[in-house]
Amino acid sequence: MTAVDHEMLVAQLDRLKLTAIRDQLDTLLDEAARSEMTLREALAFLVTREIARRDERRISMAGKIAQFPFVRELDGFDFDAQPSLDQRQFRELATCRWIAHGDTVLFLGPPGTGKTHLAVALGREAIRQNHSVQFVTAATLVAMLAKAHDNGSLEKQLTTLSRPKLLIIDELGYLSFEANAAHLFFQLVSRRYERGSILITSNRSVGEWGSVFGDPVVATAILDRLLHHSTVITIRGDSYRLREKRRSGLLQKAGTTLETNETAKQ
Question: Are residues 136 and 48 in the same domain?
Fold first, then answer.
């Protein structure tokens, strides 16, 4: 059998764009030989490595397009610290069936309880399953819609925001909406209704959204669409950030300092 020229093989792999196999060729072949793989097993082994590299690159690129603020995974979430949450429910959400159906998920709870962590983690799971994702804070979203409305490009902006299979809107409720902004938000929700999924995190209960949107009627119309096919998860518990400060004694020290200062003033 004619000996295979290494450089020619590398060039052929490059031509076929099998870059993972190309970059690790000697290592992969040595591992296959040590394991005494059959030709069929070796081929499956090489193809698996190539697919893994491509998936890794795809997920990385899609994550950048999604504009996640950080990388978070469900495995990294401390469910023991939030006993109000059911891990089985999140394993079900991680299947992304709700995204395929165009449903809504709401994470409600006080600041620091892990809402954004969970939202990003589910967004990354969606990307792994080939769903397009866009992450945006509520404040940024409202600013985008208002700017588009003012310069006459609202329809284009709504179309752009309707394309991702999953739209994650973070931190709804921290800032109240102006009346016009609430109507713009309603248009976006209506455009995506039963077509694309929305995941919203909020520090306010849905009963308070009337004050958030500045218009109870518009808030009711928005909730009517969001809650029609939805999963609402309320997170109860302490802030992770405050919990760590308590463990380190910082909050207690701060409280002692304040008490000392107040005593000195008296």
Answer: no
Is 56 in the same domain as 88? Answer: no
Per-residue pLDDT reduced to its tens digit, 158-181: 999 999 999 999 999 988 888 789
Residues 198 and 101 in one domain: yes
Type of residue numbered 99: I
Do 80 and 96 lie in one domain? The reply is yes
Q: What is the pTM of this model?
A: 0.81
Q: Is 79 buried (19+), middle (13-18) or exposed (0-12) by CB count in 10 A?
A: middle
Instruction: Indicate whether 106 and 226 sit together in one domain.
Output: yes
Give the chain's domain count. 2
Q: Which helix (H) or strand (E) holds 128?
A: helix 115-128
Q: CA nearest 166: which of 222, 226, 122?
A: 122
SS3 5: coil
Residue 103 phi/psi, 5° resolution?
-85, 175
pLDDT tens string 217-232: 999 999 999 999 999 9
Q: What angle do CA 138, 192, 121 make, to 5 degrees?
A: 55
| Rounded-to-integer distance, Cα 165 and Cα 96, Å | 11
pLDDT value of residue 226: 96
Residue 28 lies in a domain: yes
